[in-house]
Amino acid sequence: MAPVVHGSLDEARAAIARLSRGRTIIPARQRLHVDSVTRGAWRELLKGPALRITVLQIAINFTFAWGYWGLQTWLPTLLQQRGLSLPQSYSFIAISALCMFPGYMVASYLTGKLGRKKVMVTFVGLSAVAGYGFANAQTIDMLHFCNFALAFFSLGAWGVWDTWIAELYSTRLRTIGYSWAALAQRLANIAAPTIIGMLVAQGTSFNVTTTFINLFLVATVLLALFVPETEGKDLD
């Protein structure tokens, strides 16, 4: 055990009191300590229990980012396939973006009640349902409703997932594990718009293109079922 940096004890006590909303008060006579942690190596992500977590989180980050950005990147063009003008498409997207804020807030509230796993699986599952409705909408009103629901649930799920990733690893592997998560997302962010752009250029129908994108959300739900819950558990 190593003491915290000299001179920061008062600040640490104040931070703990503030973050706990006054529920945790550290007496002045009690010293605070942190464990001495060595830096982890990326090879450790592929050994023992960490291997399963690494494979799962990389797969989820890739499929989830594909399902989200594959649609969002080409949404103006896809909406024009359904008869909207370019200005109408951008207005549609701007209004949909407002749904992310209540999505984040509702997901945050429910996570404290139900845990990360239930909220993540439910929100991504409902995103997939909304994506199916979006792909098969027969009216502009239904197209709006499904895309609003898609924005609400997918962004709410992202808020939960970004927190959950970090909790899956021990302290020494947390940063490097998260970096692999970010890498998987970036690879999907490159691949998805490229592949979807090829489908659009080939004249693939709106229904087929959006259904293909939606399959990645379905894959995300199935993968998330195997990730361990961390809500209420002590982190290593």
Automatic annotation (TrEMBL):
Residue stretches making up the Major facilitator superfamily (MFS) profile domain: 1-231
Tell whether Transcription is among the UniProt keywords: no
Tell me where in or outside the cell this protein is found.
Membrane
Q: Which Pfam families does this chain map to?
A: Sugar_tr (PF00083)
Q: Does the keyword Transmembrane apply?
A: yes
Q: Cellular component per GO? A: plasma membrane
Q: Which residues cross the membrane?
A: 49-69, 89-107, 119-136, 142-165, 206-227
Q: What keywords is this UniProt entry annotated with?
A: Membrane, Transmembrane, Transmembrane helix
- PROSITE patterns attached here? MFS
Sample GO molecular function, one term: carboxylic acid transmembrane transporter activity
Q: Which residues form a coiled coil?
A: none
* Membrane-related topology note: Multi-pass membrane protein
PANTHER family found in the cross-reference section: CARBOXYLIC ACID TRANSPORTER PROTEIN HOMOLOG
**Name this protein carries in UniProt:** MFS transporter
